[in-house]
Amino acid sequence: MIRLSLPVRLLLAILPAAGIMLGGMILVTVHLSQQVVEHFVNDYGRDTAQREALAISASVKEAMTLAEGTARMVSALAATREVEGGRLTLSDRRQVTEYLRQAAALHPEVAGIWFYAEPDALGPDGAALAAHDAQVGMPGTGRYALHASSQEGTVRLAPPPADFDVQDYYARAARRHRLTVLPPHEFPILGVPTIVVSHAYPVMMGDRVIGVAGIDLDQKARARIYDGHRPFGAPVAIINTSEVWVYHSDHALVGSTATFGNGPGDQFSVGEQVFVDQAQPYSLERRLADGTRLKRFTWPVDLFPGEGRRLLVMDVPLDRLAGPFAGIRTAILVAGVLCALLLTGLMVAAVRLIVAQPLKRLQAGVDGLSQGDYDRTLPDQDRPDVIGDLARGLEDFRRTLVERDSLRRDLQRVAACIAVAHDAIYMMSRDYDVLYANDQALTLVGVTDAKDLLGRRISQFVTPETAAALAALRQQISVSLAHKGVWTGRIDNWATLTGYEVEAVEFTASIDPGGDILVVARDVSERDRVERERQVLQRQILQQDKLETVGQLASGVAHDFNNLLGAILGYAGFLSTDLAAGSAARGYADRILEVGARAKDLVRQILGFARTDAGVQEVVPARTIIEDAQVVLRSTVPATTRLTCTAEEGLPPLRANPTQMMQVLMNLVINAHDARRGDAGDITIRLNRGPLPFAFPPDWATAEIVPAPAGVPHVVLEVADQGSGLPPDHLARMFEPFFTTKGQDKGTGLGLANVLSIVKAHGGGLAVASRPGAGTVIRITLPSFSGPSFSGPAAMAAADEQSETARTAPPAILRVLVVDDTEAMGELLREGLSRRGHEVTVCGDPRAALDLLSDTASGFNALITDQVMPGMTGMSLIHAAKGRHPGLICVLCTGYSANVDEAAARAGGADAFFIKPLSVKALMDRLDALYDTRR
């Protein structure tokens, strides 16, 4: 048995249907071709009738314009004369006569063109005009009348009939006040009776008729013109709504009434009468007695819009009319057969395209799914048929396979992530037997192979102490999982049987929908350590804030104390100068000055310790590094610790920041004090000229943290203690931030790191030597200053001494303005400067001082001002004063120089800078020296 494919079977099934469809298509095509030809014939005949009717209407309308022109001319002339208050003149009437004469000459086909006026409407009775042309006018009637016609090229003017005013061609137009077209009637043209059709136009003056203009068309002459209209070789005819033949190819019928009936001799059928009476177009087929088939087409012949009185009738033999369309039917038949054949072919192709190929594509998609190709989307899913349903069903199946494959890959990825997670992850049964464990989970229980752990409990791999801690939590875990579904806890000091120990482990347990327990364990030892360090650091930062607050308080107190101490020392100096030498009172004054000087040094040390500004380096004597720090250092360490400070004589100056160097010594001394073995100990600070050998016994460990400067002179600062010492591996790390060997809460690990940063900023070197049980030596190498002089307060004092020595002339008398908000300080300066002979004005308000300086009559030579005052600083006051008096000597004094130093003061316009408590004598000498340089 032959097995046919599905497309072939479908083709065999549709062949009978295709044959039936082909026959039906041929029948439909035959009928359609007949309908198309008839449609074309009707349209063609109707268009031809319309075209003929329009041509006839156009020729008549052209003739009618002659009469219309006459009417318009007369109306225009009459209107003009009426405005002027008179009637038409003789020349006006001659103009009308000439227009009619020329119109008749230019249009000989017109039977006549005429104009009849009402009595006296255009002037006198026309006697004068008749004298010019005897054929014009009607003497004795008061009428102007004229009839013009052209005969053999000659225009003839004739008088109208005597009864023209009662004839339709005149009376009807005059009565209706509009264009009137008369039916054919007989009218004598040059004495010859002629059948004409008249078109009359009333000439109006407002609502009054003053005459009628008209034109006569000779019907026989028109008939000869219409005889030339023979579309398709067939004659045309014109009938009016009165059922009278206006034109007919049989001229004998012109003017006769048409016949209506259903007999073979009738000109129209009864059904056509209604269309004729209303001049409505229509078409129909007629059959003559000899069997000839005619097609009648009609169309209105309108001489003006809305007239509707004439109908053109055209009878065309059907064979002549259908001749041009004979080939259309054959073409339609051939096209229909071809379409039927094409449709049959399309049906065969459609079976292949719509059914066979989609099935093949679906088969290919199924084969791909069977081979594991899940990424290719199946085709034909958007089809609304059975094949689309199959495609959509297979696509759902493919997506299921894709989701399954994606789920499998996701599970593999999750498993891979879990395997390398830093947390230990376990999956346990309800009896806490391990079902799954990742690599970190194996490490946490001290095993390397998962097979050794699966199916067993964790408690079997940890120490008894850890197992006991797990057992103690088991009841709590069960209750929390039953009520909340999750439990979180921790076990400290986790230890396994293999020796793996962890400070703390945090557990999180939850139940999955299947009833298994998921446990995530994390080693939180490092987190706990970081948290402890954070808390310690936070406490240290709070302590540092307290120290800064204390420093600010000390600065404020020292600032106010400087003003008081300056007044004490100043007045004590006055007493020492005024009292006799050797007297008891002079001794008391000298003791006050001595104690005050010690207090001055103490305040300067406190202010230096409390400074928080950036490290500005200046040239200072090397010895001052130790001397400035001794007062503060001795109060820092207890009396049981012996502090020894030595400095070599003749040391060169250093370019350093005294405050930062004091911080270095403070950190090193405090560190040495904390390293004591017991309650007592020795700390030695040495300052020597370099280079010095850095040699120690072999059992001492040494480390050069920062290399010493080579090739330049330098000074060596050493701090040595007899403390517990440091092991060798701690020497290099002791200057790292946050590294400390002190107990918890006893050190920040920042002190020595600060020392290292300050030494590097000074371009120095740093080395350390230590031995456990013997002590530690820290050596700092500082480059010495090789310039010709140094700056700072010492340099200023030296300059003052030189100026004092060089001064030989007596001091000048100056007008000095002292500005200080502390009354005692202001009065002290008034007293001291007045003793020198200067004229002194004291002011406590800097703004009031500006007003005094603005007074040109004051003539101040110098301004001495404090820095910190309410409303305005001393620097701002000097800047404003210099702007008004550039030559004014300005001296700035301050009890605390955290925000301003000598360099800043000079940059701001100050000529001299003093730190309180100041020496009144030094101030006066400096003031005199500055004035001497400007004289």
TrEMBL record:
The modification 4-aspartylphosphate is found at residue 866. Residues 353-406 form the HAMP domain. GO terms for molecular function: phosphorelay sensor kinase activity. It is found in: Membrane. Signal peptide: none annotated. Keywords: Coiled coil, Kinase, Membrane, Phosphoprotein, Transferase, Transmembrane, Transmembrane helix. Residues 556-786 form the Histidine kinase domain. One of its GO terms (cellular component) is membrane. SUPFAM superfamilies: ATPase domain of HSP90 chaperone/DNA topoisomerase II/histidine kinase (SSF55874), CheY-like (SSF52172), HAMP domain-like (SSF158472), Homodimeric domain of signal transducing histidine kinase (SSF47384), PYP-like sensor domain (PAS domain) (SSF55785). The chain crosses the membrane at residues 331-355. Residues 815-931 form the Response regulatory domain. The keyword Coiled coil applies. It catalyses: ATP + protein L-histidine = ADP + protein N-phospho-L-histidine. Its EC number is 2.7.13.3. Residues 520-547 form a coiled coil. PANTHER family: SENSOR HISTIDINE KINASE, TWO-COMPONENT SENSOR PPRA. This is histidine kinase. It comes from Nitrospirillum amazonense. The lineage of its organism: Bacteria, Pseudomonadati, Pseudomonadota, Alphaproteobacteria, Rhodospirillales.
